[in-house]
Amino acid sequence: MLARKQEINLQLNELVDAVILGATYWLCHWLRFRGILSLDSSPEIPEWKYFWWALAPIVPLGPFLLELQGYYQYPLEKTIWRSITQIARAGIWLTVILAATMFLLKYELPSRSVIIFFVLAAPAALILKERIVVSIYKRTLRNGAIGERILIVGEPAKMAEVESSFTRSQRLEITVVGRVPLATDDMAPLVNAVHEHSVGRVLLAFSNIELKVVQKAIEACELEGVEAWLCADFIRTSIARPTYELFASRPMLVFRTTPDISWALLVKSAFDRASAFLGLVLLSPLLLLIAAIIKLTSPGPAFFKQKRAGRHGRPFTMYKFRSMNTNAEMQRAELIAFNVMSGPVFKVDADPRVTGFGRWLRKTSIDELPQLLNVFFGDMSLVGPRPLPVYEVEKFESASHRRRLSMRPGLTCLWQVQGRNQVTNFSEWVRLDLEYIDNWSLALDFWILLRTIPAVIFGFGAK
Fold it and tell me: What is the value of pTM for the model shown?
């Protein structure tokens, strides 16, 4: 019941915020058009019909981007500063989308002051609405007008542990009206408590789970028409996050160590492919020039192809500009003694196989640009663990190292922006990759992309 209420509240919040964003944008134009507010010397600006197109990305995408930043989560516990930072991050993405729309569709916003007013007014309007709603909601909860009555059933120690873990906002939204110890398959105490307290949800809390008792409790709740929520922390995991799925009509408790399928991942995939396509188009003259220089300065093909391990270790062909001589792979065995990396990865300082022009390509990371093709084809992402050759993955000594293969490999990653070749310990490299996987978000991807630009331009950590 509470979960469904939260889902409905989320949708209502998003709808109201969409209206607020659209109305604020219109109001900013109206105030500027009437001359009530002004930041520039122009006495007049065009009428509304030259501005309305921006509503198309602002109204639907504004609340969606706010949701991706966690803006609608835990409203009763959030600070105003937390809300401001979430709105700011969503605003950055919305600005990028508006700019891309203007560039691709050749639209214009004739007055910059309208946008400036909107950037200042929209966050204030959103926060004002949030604070008003939270204040009214808290007052109503304290008065007992709303809130859910639940029953906790199970082992006494476990029931107390579960109840003590309730957050401050959960204590406002939930009232525990009864606690029923349950050690046998006699369900009479449970049924009587459900009748007495008129609850809609029963929380089952067991430490040493007895399947027969739990089954009987769930059946009793089913017959009474109330929800049964089973506390599943009797299965201990250190990293994996449990979710519930249906597979072949059978209920499954799923433990994932990577981000679940979500709108955020779909946005990441769409952004990857669109950016790769745009990059290939805009950089095509540079790519052709680099390919020609490679052909003129050293014998052999302009591109280097190698089998790399993709998501879950699935091999794919990765493309790079060739920066070594053509027999580099055969010379690898002669240089094993000079390997500076621990673990299965092979790296050599001042690698003699690298050509003169190839050294500059590596310093600037331009040799990686053909991997935009891999991103466009879906084998790679813009941000993710760097793909390793298949033969290096086969030499992984620790099972935990393979967890870095659980996400699609990328052009750049935490390792790339935190020193690249200065990291010589493979375990540290893996640690950075797992840190990225465990904390993944669109905001983290955006931060890594921003950090990659100066790392590439100034060659931080590159050799």
Answer: 0.61
